[in-house]
Amino acid sequence: MQTDPEIVQRAEQPYVAIKASVTMETIGTVLPQLHPEMFAWLDAHGVRPAGAPFSKYKGTRRVREAAWGNGPVEKPKPRPRPTSSRDCAEA
Predict the structure, then answer these.
(1) Residues 6 or more apart from 26 whose CB is under 8 A from it?
(2) Is there a contact between 57 and 27 (Cβ–Cβ < 8 Å)?
(3) How many Å apart are CA 31 and CA 67, to the nearest integer?
(4) Domain containing 28: what range?
(5) Are 41 and 53 in contact (CB under 8 A)?
(6) Residue 64 phi, psi dihedral angles, 5° rounding
């Protein structure tokens, strides 16, 4: 059953994100790894998730794309110094 798209206005929601560079060929292997890494980061920093994880994708076929493993959180927390090669940030 097909439904029409619906625009929903939502309140601002803080979230954490792990950014990774991908191509169309690697997105299928890189993106699934981001959510477990994000949940490990949340747990290590005492941050509670406030909803289901989601992914964000930006790019074109001709340039390197960026993908994010994201998860909403209850409240913003100051950004810590990265502890791995990945950049983990709260927005």
Answers:
(1) none
(2) yes
(3) 7
(4) 15-90
(5) no
(6) -65, 135
Is the residue at 2 inside a domain?
Answer: no
The predicted model scores a pTM of 0.62
Task: For residue 83, give both structure tokens.
Answer: 């502890």
| Count of the separate structural domains present in the chain | 1
- 6 within some domain: no
Q: Quote the tokens at residue 37.
A: 């890494």
Cβ–Cβ < 8 Å for 41, 16: yes
32, containing H or E segment: helix 27-44
Beta pairing, strands 65-72 & 54-58: antiparallel
3-state secondary structure of 38: helix
Residue-wise pLDDT tens digits, 5-63: 899 898 888 888 888 888 778 888 888 888 888 888 888 888 888 888 888 777 766 65
Whether 69 and 38 have beta carbons less than 8 Å apart is answered as: yes
Is 7 a domain residue? no
- The residue assigned the tokens 């560079």 is 21
